[in-house]
Amino acid sequence: MTTDTHSSELPKRRARAWQAALKHPGLLFGGLVLVGMLAMGLLAPLIAPFDPYAQDITKRLIDPVWHPGGGWLHPLGTDHLGRDYLSRMIYGVRISLIIGFTTMLISGLIGSSLGLAAGYFGGRVDRAVMFLVTTRLSMPVILIALSAVALIKGSLTVVIAILGLLLWDRFAVVVRAATQQMRSQDYVTAAECLGCSKAYIIAGEILPNVMPQIIVVATLEMAHAILLEAALSFLGLGVQPPTPSWGLMIAEGRGEMLFSPWITAIPGLALLLLVLAINLVGDGLRDVTAQEQRH
Amino acid sequence: MLVFIVRRLLLAVLVLVTVSAISFTLLQVAGDLAQSIAGDSATVADVEAARRAHGLHRPFIVRYVDWLGSALRGDLGLSFFSREPVVKLIVDGVPITATLGFWAIVVAVAIAVPLGILAALRPNSWIDRLALTLAVIGQAMPSFWLALQMIILFGLMLRWLPISGSGTWQHLVMPVMVLALNAVPGIMRLTRAGMIEVLASDYIRTARAKGLSRWTIVRRHAVRNAIIPVISLAAVQLGFLLGGSIIVEAVFALHGVGHLAWISISRSDFPVVQGIVLMFSLIYVFLTLAADLLNAAIDPRIRLT
């Protein structure tokens, strides 16, 4: 699979994958939303109209622009401390994306390594890894994450570290199954015959071929991590105030739920849209790579 | 079959011991328990007194073996906060959480399985698209936020349902719906995928060739085969719902085990937290064990692995 004829075909395959991606409505929509959110996070200091931490008690709970009491100065209104809600929303996407991406990297590294080892070596290694997966699955993520965050005191780093150490199970299961399939392929046997080291076979031959599956799981786990962070912060045991985490903003708006329902509605809709976009990209990539394998 | 059962049982026990060790270690090493119990304003002497009072000065391994031994005898210690036995606190919460979990899984299956079957019968039709859209959105929905929006709509604006507490069946409607929606996407996708696979198989073609009606084929042949993996998924989902019930019970102020977990974590009541972790793991391990044995009974090939 990794021969010269293969690499000369690569541009053609890339072009075909792009075409397939453009024809896939879910992937296109998800991709556009994700790019938009990413740009919002990266450009936050440039596009946010106000400082997201600046409080102004005289301007508490201004209505958003679509309400009679609202105006364009604060398009999404202000929260209970008079902070500009649009600016907080823009900075909030950074928190979600950082948590989702870093958690996914940590858990992906742990899970993929375990999955590769289990799938390639089989036998005792496989049994040990599967035991770890079963044990991990029998501990409810939310309960363990809540307890751990409460003990170490919540912060961005702590939430990332804990979720990273918890969300590797799906990577391990999927990569293990994919590796088991790859293991019996001719090119792996050929590499073994040539006397390649085990480390080379795993990293150089198998890993590139299970990468599509890893990427699909990575998107799902990224979405999972973002939702969990929001839930932890909502329960008061995640990212701490005054950080503009969307989950935390929903919790802060609870007191104003009756008269200013938009305070909880806006960050929730943003979360829904972000997670939906990431999931659509994941589903789309799975469809496109599945087509790719049929060619 | 007997060898299979024994091996699965041993595995389950091993998993439980590992989980108990991990949760115990986690809660012991993550911070100074004596400091947490005594509070932030405590003096050094207060912390030392708290350490002695709760036996925290003993070596770690001694405490673990001691705790595990008592746990096996059904004694999970006393709550740091209320001084009541942990087992009693948990047992008091079980009826609410169990009712919530049971109805949530019933509602989830009642929505997801028919929808998955209908979607599989007509791939790419409007009902298939509707089902997939519902699954994608359901997966992306933050459940605590959905709960709040339902409270605003049905509780505060329409005033159809009570927004917190428990007592009547009306109190359970919103929590059950929110919890069920967590489990719908997974069950629906698996039912749909299983049905599509089964409908393309040879024995369905044979059944069709025999001239059986479409409905008989679906009911007697297709659904029965496609439902097997769904049963084990539903069992596993029931375990996951326990985790979800922490959020739902916190939002709706239902005083079940999930609420107890949240409160205990917030006030560093470690014996209770440890007890709940152990209980949730026990239930999950039991459910997967039951699902495995059920599958092994239905499909003899599984027993050989």
For the record, give the distance between the C-alpha atoms at the N and C termini of chain A, rounded to a whole number: 14 Å
How much helicity do the residues of chain B have? over 70%
Query: Averaged pLDDT of chain A, please?
Result: 85
How much of the residues of chain A is beta strand, in percent?
under 5%
Write down the Rg of chain B.
Answer: 24 Å
Q: Which class best fits the helix and strand makeup of chain B?
A: mainly alpha
Strand count of chain B? 0
| Principal-axis shape of chain B | flat
Q: Given the helix and strand composition of chain A, which structural class is it?
A: mainly alpha
Describe it.
The complex is a heterodimer of chains A (295) and B (305). Chain A is mostly helical. Chain A has helices at 4-23, 25-42, 44-47, 85-121, 123-137, 141-152, 156-166, 169-183, 186-193, 198-234, 246-252, 262-294. Helices cover 74% and strands 0% of the residues of chain A. In chain A, helix 2 packs across helix 12 and helix 4 (85-121) runs parallel beside helix 8. Mean pLDDT of chain A is 85; it is low at 1-5. In chain B, helix 7 crosses helix 8 (170-199), helix 7 (143-157) packs across helix 10 (214-252) and helix 10 (214-252) packs parallel to helix 11. Chain B has 305 residues and is mainly alpha-helical. The N and C termini of chain B lie close together (11 Å). Chain B has 12 helices and no strands. Chains A and B meet through helix 5, helix 6, helix 10 and helix 12 of A and helix 1, helix 6, helix 7, helix 10 and helix 11 of B.
